[in-house]
Amino acid sequence: MAEAALSALRILPSVDRLLRHPDIAVLAEEHGRAEVTLAIRNTLATLREEARAGADIGEAMIAASVLSCLAMRAGTRLKPLFNLTGTVLHTNLGRAILAEEAVEAAAAAMRQAVSLEFDLDSGKRGERDDHVRALVCELTGAEDATLVNNNAAAVLIVLNTLSQNKEAIVSRGELIEIGGAFRMPEIMARAGARLREIGTTNRTHARDYANALGPETGLILKVHTSNYRVEGFTAEVGARELAAIAQRQNVPLVNDLGSGTLIDLSRFGLRKEPTVREAVEEGADLVTFSGDKLLGGPQAGFIVGRKDLIAAINRNPMKRALRVDKVRLAACEATLKLYRDPDRLAERLPTMRFLSRPAEEIRQQAERLLGIMMDTLEDVAVEIVSCRSQIGSGALPLDTIPSFGLSLKPKGGGRAVEELSAAFRSLSQPVIGRVAEGALIFDLRCLDNEALFRQNLSSLRFREGR
């Protein structure tokens, strides 16, 4: 038996021989000789185990395996997918989908040289923030603006610039933790600020801020608790009153809006969130907010407010480490320009389109897809169900939006639901839903390419227990 296995190993062709095989030689022209050689070696290493077990392995089989290996290595790991989880701004799925205008602007910046830090009027070095500064100020009413690579970075550099080796005063009820181990006290420590907690978890008063102010105070930080809400016996100091307290002591007030929005969301039937313009008008010296959440753009962190404070932030050496590149800057500019025409925002900005999509429209889509899903899946009960979509990414945590979807319940239940979910994840364009009450639920609120979804289902293979 051992001799037979050794014999099988001996007849496996060499790497050089396989490189001359007609089917593989063609692959070398497409992928390059080095990549194909690596794929051959990986394939032979795998097939040696099968050869030892007595499998009959020919060159045609090896060539097919090499092709499969190359396809796997060439494919992207950052795969486009269908987000049917019911969470519009899903952090794990990339948050906001960009508007076509932003995609086109980013692509143009990638294809050619751009005036990133070059002033075309003077012919001298320019500032990359200048491409969006005036636009951000126009939309927010702020004196000045800058941006970094996300809102966590915005908070970090503000704290480091204004409160290094000084106290940062924060209400205990606003010491948030968000996903990815972002805790406000730890960010303060990394920024070199000393946390000064005031008040209690549920109640903080104006006198708590006033009593905490002193020569060691660097700033007052107000944090919008966008991913949770404290209800009941509560009290907090509003931004306008807090601004007056800070101004009397000549201490900067920083309002971290987190998700942040440039428009009143109630126009889309959502609960009103404080807008950036309102935060500026209420007297905050600086306001920070995200680009890839309710704003609907690429990942970025905006800082707007007093010109002298923005200038100090831009002088911080940390700014270079946190700056955005030309691609993201181009996408930010294109996204912001859409806000000049708020009446058409829901048509042009995917995030607002998904959030404002009527439930009746989604129900009709569910009816269209019900039949094809039933035909595609055997031994799976499929029905239309009502859903409650979430906004996600820390925005309006308790608010949900009426929606409709499809419930897929394998007759075997239990493990079969996970197997069904895995089958949808393995499609050429994976479909991601959520498992609840023994069924795989697809909330259709974010399904805007129904034709591609139907086409994608043609390759679905699911048999319970396999």
Task: Report on the architecture of this protein.
43% of the residues lie in helices and 19% in strands. With 466 residues, it is of the alpha/beta class. A hairpin with a 2-residue loop joins strand 13 and strand 14. Helix 3 (22-31) crosses helix 4, helix 6 packs antiparallel against helix 15 (326-338) and helix 8 packs across helix 9 (184-191).
Q: How many angstroms does the end-to-end distance come to?
A: 32 Å
Using the CA coordinates, give the radius of gyration: 28 Å
CATH class of the largest domain: Alpha Beta
Tally of extended strands? 17
Contiguous low-pLDDT stretches (5 residues minimum) are: 1-9
Could you name the CATH topology of the largest domain? Answer: Aspartate Aminotransferase, domain 2
